[in-house]
Write a structure and sequence with these properties.
Order of helices and strands: EHEEHEHEHEEHEHHEHEEHEHEE
CATH superfamily of the largest domain: Vaccinia Virus protein VP39
CATH topology of the largest domain: Rossmann fold
Structural class: alpha/beta
Helix content: 25-40%
Number of strands: 14
Number of helices: 10
Strand content: 15-25%
Number of domains: 2
Length: 370
Amino acid sequence: MDNLKIVCPCLFGLESILAGEMKRLSFREVKCENGKVSFVGDLNDIARANINLRTAERVQIEVASFKALSFEDLFQGTLNAPWEDFIDKLEAFPVKGWSLNSKLHSVPDCQSIIKKAVVKRLESKYGISYFEETASKVQIQFSILKDEVSLLIDTSGAGLHKRGYRANSNDAPIKETLAAGILDLARVKGDSVLYDAMCGSGTFLAEGFLRAMKIAPGLRRSFAVEKNAFMLQSAFQNARNEALEKIDKSVSFEGFGFDIDKNAIQLTDKNLSKIAAKGRVKTKIQDIKDFVVPEKAIVVCNPPYGERLLDIKNAEEIYKTMGKVFEKRDGVNYYIISPHEDFESFFGRKATKKRKLYNGMIKCNLYMYF
């Protein structure tokens, strides 16, 4: 299968970063939209995207797109899509999705109609009237935005932020895909020295290590599409082999993680050990007030922000402390993510650059100090 439209949702604010990743992988016709980036490719590209993309949430094949103002429009548009190219007669094909600002606003009704149309299409193509759905699952997803329907097949299964190294996390984890995007903005490379002053479960440190060593984030996991009949069996093996050849263990990357919480440091160490990063990354129990600015480094931080008034007040005191200990120094750049709108006033100075990002559904700003 060539010239498939492959759509990769991402966190808002990371679209240009994800597009850059795709271009570096030589994907064709890369196009940014709100909350997603698409490209044109084949089954080999689906495997490469799942294994290599650091900031994509998942990889989907767009089977059809059309306008639907009525349930009949939805049925006919679905019926005309080439489902037989992707769904074997024994495979299960559940439907899920969402609708926003559209005439067809009932999600259960849309699910039912799409399912009926897919069944009718497959009945005519396979010449059977009953589908066992006992083999592997082909997840059909739909989105309806302002009456524009997009019908997709998910190839990832579990979200791509699940790299395999973080079984547990602390109370306020930063998503792996967001951490990867911030490290892209921070230009972490093989010779970088990375500091996380409040490392939590160690996500920045793990993502920094993987990025610096050119280790593909999806190497440790499997993907739903590997079980599907339409998928080339050689595609993932080739993509994994290609990714393994790119790993560079000769780099000088070092990481340092600090946290006041002993449990956080233990969790960080456990997560880092899963990706064999402990030789490159050192951790220490330490209060933020005792942070010492290194001679040359990239410093990242996801400080607490709190939701209750007392927690917010505590967070604001931490921001003031950070402003004192994160001194200006040539060769040291700071990247701090926070949803607090007045972070700069508590920190004590304006950011060199500010970028709006989302950690899940929480609107944040990345404050960058060069």
